[in-house]
Amino acid sequence: MSETTDRLPVHIGFIMDGNGRWAQKRGLPRKFGHREGASAFRKIARYCKKIGIKYVTFYAFSTENWSRPKDEIDELMKLFGEYIDEVGEYAEENTRLIFLGDKSAFGKEMADKMSELERDSRDFDEMTLMLAMNYGGRDDIVHATRQIAAMVENKEIRHTDVDEALISGLLYTGGIPDADLIIRPSGEKRLSNFLIWQSAYAEFYFTDVLWPDFTPKELDKALEDFASRKRRFGGV
Ligand code: IPE
Ligand code: IPE
Ligand code: MG
Fold first, then answer.
1. pTM of this prediction?
2. Which of 211, 216, 218 is nearest to 19 (CA)?
3. How far apart are CA 57 and CA 129, in angstroms?
4. Helix or strand run (H / E) with residue 77
5. Is 134 a catalytic residue?
6. What is the pLDDT of residues 146-200, one digit of tens each?
7. What would the 3-class secondary structure string for 80-131 be?
8. Catalytic residue among 65, 140, 180, 193, which?
9. What residues form DSSP beta bridges with 12?
10. Ligand 2 first shell, C-beta below 6 A
11. Quick one: which of 89, 200, 90 has its CA closest to 141?
């Protein structure tokens, strides 16, 4: 795909799946797959920026992933600590950072760092990079609904003021355009609780390539496919 295409998605969501299988195929412990996956994340994030994608969301850890064995969770938390230190580099590159999900699950020190990165990068506008960590689409909606309930309780709004715009604005992605393209490697064809509200009219791209093997070339294929889709949004 050339860098001049006029059919680029505004917001791409990546479900970074297949790390464990990547490692298992090589007879390695799963954690090696997660390390390799983090490296793919880095390359794809930079490539997205290079080709002019405005919003990109990476699904790194779901609300359901806490059910994994403790040693895998520990390994992932270690990696996320490194992620957080590293994504700070993007803040120097005019990239805004937003974390989707309840940060408090990662402990105060890490949650504070995450908030600090969000704060320090909030005026950057070349690209917005979102990391979905401890994220679940249903939790996103519950979190927004609680805020709405409190607003009604405090008589700030009436129940008839609740509309799609209000809900959208209170999601973790408040103010960010809906996803145009959701990409899931690893062969699974499901959302696994990723951006369920925000992907109402997204296009989906599935590939058997495992996330650690997902290269800019694979992304180009997805973008070419996306450019050929006819989006109707319910119209004719
Ligand atoms: C995705 O890779 C990373 C996380 C969910 C944290 P997996 O660990 O799910 O890899 P597979 O699906 O087992 O191959
Ligand atoms: C989805 O992958 C979550 C992330 C990639 C962070 P999973 O591996 O958790 O999804 P399922 O369990 O196969 O649906
Ligand atoms: Mg998986």
1. 0.96
2. 211
3. 6
4. helix 70-91
5. no
6. 999 999 999 999 999 999 999 999 999 999 999 999 999 999 999 999 999 999 9
7. HHHHHHHHHHHHCCCEEEEEECCHHHHCHHHHHHHHHHHHHCCCCCCEEEEE
8. 65
9. 56, 181
10. 15-17, 59-62, 65, 188, 190, 192
11. 200
